[in-house]
Write a structure and sequence with these properties.
The complex is a heterodimer of chains A (about 170) and B (about 220).
Chain A: H1 2-7, H2 11-36, H3 39-53, H4 64-86, H5 109-114, H6 118-128, H7 134-141, H8 145-165
Chain B: H1 2-14, H2 29-43, H3 46-66, E1 78-83, E2 86-91, E3 106-107, E4 114-116, E5 126-133, E6 141-148, E7 152-157, E8 161-167, E9 170-177, E10 182-189, E11 192-199, H4 203-210, E12 213-214
Antiparallel strand pairs in B: 1-2, 2-7, 3-12, 4-5, 5-6, 6-11, 8-9, 9-10, 10-11
The chains are: A mainly alpha (about 170), B alpha+beta (about 220).
């Protein structure tokens, strides 16, 4: 609670937060709605995403990194809501979630990263694209830093397997 | 290598989402109200934050000291709780054992000068009817959500008071924000859950609307 109340008072952060809200709420809605297929649930997911973003170090300016952060956070909240509503918490990697069809992989490292299961892709890109620490990723994804480190290790292992299958050197 | 590939990977994934021009969506009043409360909270000055922090700590301390922190009962129909400036609510309709078709109810009474907006929601099992004052549509309005057969959960941010009340003899919760005069009345009726959301309406008006829903 203390961290949340302190976070809301930084004017620079406030401007970034408001800019992200204006620029990306529509995108976040679509990222959530393609999973939940329900506008009201998608709005709940967007709201939850903004509550997470309120506690997060935001990019200095709008751009691809901010867009990615907004969309990923909304996607994660939507997946969590979907799992809670379907009462299927055992689906660990959400490989069969509606609306989560990955972009086709072309055998490149970037393609393989984009085609990873959501939880692996989210953690990996938040670290290597957005530059967040394990603790910060944990805050955004709703898990612990230790779990994020474990997810990252598994994601890299899966990435190596995928590329090895295609004969790529990792 | 991962750092070098990450921008292209992020771009590929983002390309699966619609572009900005195709991302239009008319957010509901509930969402707008919740977000405006969150944005407003972020605008407060440091002294206000510290004052709020002190007030919250004092209030929590008083609550804990009095043992007044309620736990969610097993057999609730409606439930709401407030923590850290967030109100979470839940409503469970009765399991009637009969698969009745969804029949939306409309308000049979509205305050003088209020007119009904065109219907927007077409989703199965969910209806919304909204009304606004012709004199002051931005500050005097209400809308009613009705869901059929399913538990409803939600949350919103803001400084609300919670009160256990009744609507037509059924358990209900009145949630009110004195700062914004936003209020919400949550109740169930048979297999349906109702949420009346209003701005600027008197308490009596809320109950008058809720208790005069008709086919």
């Amino acid at each position: 609670m203390l961290a949340y109340l302190q976070a809301i008072d930084n004017p620079e952060d406030r401007t970034r937060f408001e800019a992200m809200y204006s620029a990306y709420r529509g995108l976040m809605f679509h990222a959530a709605n393609r999973i939940l297929q329900n506008p009201q649930d998608a709005e709940d997911a967007v709201h939850l995403a903004f509550l997470s973003l309120a506690n997060c170090r935001l990019p200095a300016k709008l751009g691809p990194q901010a867009r990615h952060l907004a969309a990923v956070t909304a996607e994660r909240k939507a997946i969590d809501l979907y799992r809670a509503r379907k009462r299927r918490p055992e689906v660990e990697l959400e490989e069969n979630l509606p609306g989560c069809a990955p972009p086709p992989s072309d055998g490149t490292l970037a393609g393989a990263m984009a085609a990873l299961p959501p939880r692996y892709r989210e953690a990996l890109l938040l670290k290597y694209y957005n530059g967040y620490s394990a603790a910060e990723i944990g805050e955004l994804l709703g898990t612990t830093a230790a779990n994020v480190r474990q997810i990252l290790a598994r994601a890299k292992r899966k990435l190596a397997e995928e590329l090895a299958e295609r004969g790529e050197i990792v | 290598m991962l750092y070098a590939a990450a921008p292209e990977a992020a771009e590929r994934w983002l390309d699966t989402l619609p572009g900005r021009e195709d991302c239009g969506h008319n957010f509901s009043l509930t969402f707008e109200a919740s977000m405006s409360a969150l944005l407003r909270r972020r605008r407060k000055r440091r002294w206000k934050t510290l004052a709020l922090l002190a007030a919250v700590i004092a209030a929590l301390g008083a609550l804990l000291a009095s043992g007044a922190v309620a736990e969610r009962p097993d057999n609730y129909r409606v439930y709401a709780a407030q923590e850290d400036g967030l109100v979470s609510y839940s409503a469970r309709p009765k399991d009637t054992g009969v698969d009745l078709p969804f029949r939306p109810l409309i308000p049979g009474w509205a305050p003088e000068g209020f007119v009904r907006d065109p219907d927007k929601t077409k989703a199965t099992g969910h209806a919304v009817f909204s009304y606004h004052s012709q004199e002051d549509p931005d500050n005097l309005y209400f809308y009613i959500d009705q869901w059929h057969g399913e538990e409803q959960n939600g949350l919103f941010a803001g400084n609300f008071t919670l009160e256990d009340v009744e609507v037509d003899g059924e358990d209900a919760i009145l949630i009110y924000n004195p700062d914004t005069s936003l209020s919400r009345l949550l109740w169930t009726q048979g297999a349906d859950v109702f949420l009346l959301s209003a701005k600027g309406l008197e308490r009596e008006d809320l109950f008058q609307i809720a208790e005069n829903m008709k086919w």
